[in-house]
Amino acid sequence: MFRLALSSLRLRKGSFAATFLNVFLGATILMAFSSLFDTGMADGVSSQDKKTLTTMCYVVDGWGVLIVAFGIAATLNLTVRQRSNEIALLKSAGAVPGQITRMIIGETAVVTLLAAVLAVPVGYLAGNAVVETLISNNQVAEGTDYEFGLMALSMGLGVTFLAAAIAAYVTGRRASTVSTREALVSSAAGTTKMTKKRIGFGILFLLLGTDAAVLVPTVLKDRGYLTMSIAGEACIHVSIGLALLSPILLRVASALVGGVIRGFGGTPAYLAQANIRQRSGRMAGVLMPIILFVGMAAGSLYMQVIQNDAVSSGRLVRSQDDKNVETLNFVIVSTIAVFAAIVLINLAVTATVYRRREFGQQRLIGSTPSQVVRTVTFESVITVVTGLIAGTVAALASIIPFSLATADEAIPDAGPQIYVAVVAIVVVLTFAANIGATRKTLREPPLEALAAAV
Q: Could you list the residue range(s) of the whole structural domain that residue 31 is in?
């Protein structure tokens, strides 16, 4: 099966390029911030600098591993679902579930190893840039030598490979246990079911986020760094929980938002609603990074604004830890934002290009290219609206409790500028990726699209 995996890699370079890019970026992030531990543990580093560097390493790596693994899993899940027909044919030819699982793991292992190794020099440069930034902000003493050692390599290579292997095993196991008939029907109709495990994990993360949100204004009020840290966990947990339940959210949104846009969108809007209702599992892949981006970016940035207002008004006294937390917030937000944005573009383009056969069929029965583009546009509207609502709920899970704990008011006087900027980024990225990929796919003649997609 490993030889088959290598053949599959050669024939599906475009699909595996999405996984390669996610792994490459994830390994780069983990290496860059893990190297702060190596730098902090070097000889001659003061205890305060050591605390600053290692704390940043622990926080970013802790959530970084989870977010990177989530991004890799989402990409693998999408690419494997797109191959359900191929997997069904392998099973009908005599392949057993274990062989299919090993094939998917083998493909992922080759891509992950290549991406992680190529990420080493980039991770080194990124980590060095972070240390230089800390020095320029007077958070680390001048003359601190940057180190890129065992911790950086073990996290970048080992943890990334382990996360990808687990994601590949879970995805492959699920694909291999689907019956041949069900896989063929799913491939033709685009229908997929959410597993009980996925629903269970989604509910679990929502409960963890709710628990953190309740603790912040009650037990952890006025506890400084700890208050902000737990408030941040509320946002992250709720974001992940809603992202896991994204197919359900899309179905609900297609029923509500779809009914509105059908009033003025005509046939393209009707098709968009039908497509999302039927293919919610596949289209939810694009929704996940939107929820993560909006929830974590808006939540973290608004918490920092609340913290700064409390310091400027005299309610809080700014300490060195507070300054470190502020840097951490911006670092985490920027890191997650870049990663989520690239995952969003990656998944949107991959999902849209895969639909070349569908687009070809629509054009052969009379749809014009502009009608196909309008259909994808309405799909993007439903997806973006769903992601913005879910992401806003996740952000509020941190903002409201932290505002109550810090300023004794549920809604902070922070202005809409941050939220508007986050929304604008999501809208631009989603529509540019979906519509751009659709227009490029439509340049291919319908018959050629059908032949190439077989």
A: 1-189
